[in-house]
Amino acid sequence: MRKMGILLAGAISLAGCSSNPPPVAPAAVVDPNNPLFAPGYIATAGSSDQFEIQSSQLALQASSNPALRNLANMLIADHTRSTQMVVAAAQSAGITPPPPALLPQHQALLDQLRAAGTGPAFDVAFRDIQIQAHQQAMNQKMQKQLGARRVQSARALSVNSGDVFITTQEGSG
Fold first, then answer.
1. Could you tell me the CATH number of the domain that includes residue 60?
2. Mapping DSSP to helix (H, G, I), strand (E, B) and coil, where does residue 3 land?
């Protein structure tokens, strides 16, 4: 019986010295263009912010409507702050964010707005395009939140920039 105990203890000791490491789970594949992942989210958020800033700067030039001009100033301030928050969150997650640039869908909206001219025609186009851009942003945000495959840094970026987006939505009525 004692020999059996010694043999069992020896077998357990040898098992601990095994050279086969435990299996490692495969790394998740990250698509940098997917808005559900941090790099895609950063590009999308940066483009959205740039669209809001540039379209609002255009509104300050093309509209004489005081309410629209106030909204444009608010959008510039909110989306400048949003960009700063996304950059800070990315950097704290160890991600180097690219400089904000317009993605094709945001460039197309800005081109539509430029084609609207000035005065009341511009005001109507600005309203309609702002609604469309914010609906797209909300749809992407909801898609991201409902998506099963998210990385932690994308969640942190969404939470941080979401505060600015909600303020913008509430402020714009």
1. 1.20.1260.10
2. helix
